[in-house]
Amino acid sequence: RRGYQGLSHKYAAFMAAKAMGRPLDELKLITAHLGHGASLCAVDHGRAVDTTMGLTPLAGLISAQRSGDLDPGLLLHLMHREGLGPVEMTRRFNRDSGLRGLSGGSSDMRELLAEAEAGQPKAQAALQVYSRSLRRHLGSMWTALDGCDALVFTGGVGENAAGIRARACQRMSAFGLELDEDANRRGLATGQGAVALHKPQSRVQIWAVASDEERMIARETWRGLARRALNQAPRAEALPIPIGVSAHHVHLSQEHVEALFGPGHQLTPK
Q: How many CA atoms lie within 13 A of 115 on its CB side?
């Protein structure tokens, strides 16, 4: 399973652990990136051990325009009955499926929530199917971890759609999830990095984390450069000393000459 959206999942796990006041390597977390794309990740003591996405982002959760998991027989059926080739099937399952296909129109969660509230049957059906897919995959992540300390929502939908978070937690009381409806409706305040959404007695904590993949890129870049520096340190004595040269000469103070060639060394004029 190749998986995608790893930067978002890693940042959500990191921020949730920080908000919980516990080291990430002590926790079992399920991170839910819900946005235009959608996926879940099981994080066991800081290490990703399962994801809903597979070789491609089509696997797993229903998203804005992607189908999510399908019966392989459906693909064979469409190929046989409608004569669809790989190019057209790729377009349909990546662009015209998911919430867009279920609703017959919009793939924007904000619009669908408003339409469902107004009694639009297709929007209501799309949200029901989406929520059921989300809960079913949450259960599978739970078994991958054999228990969970916290469920963490992130991404545009996960951060902002209180109704989707509430639907995700429905029928999950057996897993120890008890959502605080008031806290869920308030959600993240402007500029807030993480907020708790669970009741005090909930066995499993529930958090919303503001996604910041750019910061995660910067953090991982810094870590990568630090590792490189540490790996080079033991070889430093064997590395040549770079000297910047301009117009066939170099400016050196006596202090620098001695740092390069030893105490008391004098350059030989030529």
A: 19
